[in-house]
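Async update (no meeting this week)

Hi team, since we skipped the sync, here's where things stand on the single-chain job. The sequence we agreed to prioritize is pasted below, unchanged from the tracker. I ran it this morning and attached the output directly underneath so nobody has to dig for it. Comments welcome in thread, and please keep replies under the output.
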Amino acid sequence: MKGDRAWACIDLDRISSNLSCAREMLPSRRILAVVKADAYGHGAISVCKRLQEDGIDYLGVGTSREALDLRAHGITAPILVLGALIESELDSVMEQDITVTIHSPGRIAELEKLAQNRGIPIPVHLLVDTGMSRLGVSSEHAAKYAHTIEESRWLNLEGLGTHLSTPRSDEVVDLQKSVFKSVLSTLQKMGIHPPLIHVDASKSALRSTDPEFNMVRLGGWIYGILPKDDTNLQLSPALSLHSQIVYLRDHTEGRSIGYGGTFVTKRDSRLATISIGYHDGLPTSLSNKGYVIVRGTKVPVVGRVTMDYTTIDVTDVPGVEVGDFVTLLGEDNGESIRAEELAHWCNLVPYEVTCLLGRRITRVPVSQLEDKVTDQDHLEVERG
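Output:
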């Protein structure tokens, strides 16, 4: 990819494989694939087209704008806006057959009026706050609001959900689920039975034994980003990140490198500059402690990660040349770097690693190609 300074290959076959794994492991659940934040930085359009081909049950987005963008690009699969709604976009959302989530009681009357004006009832989901304390109606009053929706001629209560704040803590999860089940029990006694009940996400789905929770929201699972200690799943990371060497120089021992001279060569060294920096989403916290792969060898990042460039030490890699490919995430000749590993070096959440990737990173959706990095002629390019 000589024409690109930095690019990310998105393996759509791995997206499909990870979805198949979810269906196999969670056979009684519907799958909502979370594609907010540009599909966690993977490129929402190409990812959603593949998920739609695979018959995904639901797509979940963070904002109404994300939902409208998907519809504008031909995505017809069911879409649920998980996040807060922008008032100016509500009419467009309804016109495009997009399902919305109600987080506050004030939205009920507003949506009801809009639906009545259009003369078409709309499906909604009600989010119950069971401890996240970010969005959602209070658990104490959730049954009352659900009843209001149920009684409306213009609103259909399609789903009920909550958001787990600490999915790795069984104690916190059990407490939140207990609160949610209490709400659900009250609704059932009132004769209210929302068709879709969703609580669990990627990190808690396998530990859930609640048959009434019939849909799961999967984000990291779909993209193959889950800490190995969370599950024993064999998921495949869908995104690999690459750049290339644009400059090589030999330095003598004792040479300070980069802004602030934060790295000093401890021997005669060959250093390379690669064309990716923090504007592209490479964390500055990778400075002086991260690694990349060159010619199948892990080499260290030296000096500060700057806006456009990063310096690496290639002294121990023979034959390095300007134009050589560099792998920052993914596999190269037996070596690999996962998002979880890069996140550990930078003290980040693994999802941040891919979500931070900037607009200058060319997203390249690939499928059934043996050489996903170098064979550019057959690739459809999607810019983030």
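Quick observations from my side:
The first strand starts at residue 6 and ends at 11.
The CA atoms of residues 38 and 86 lie 18 Å apart.
Reply here if anything looks off.
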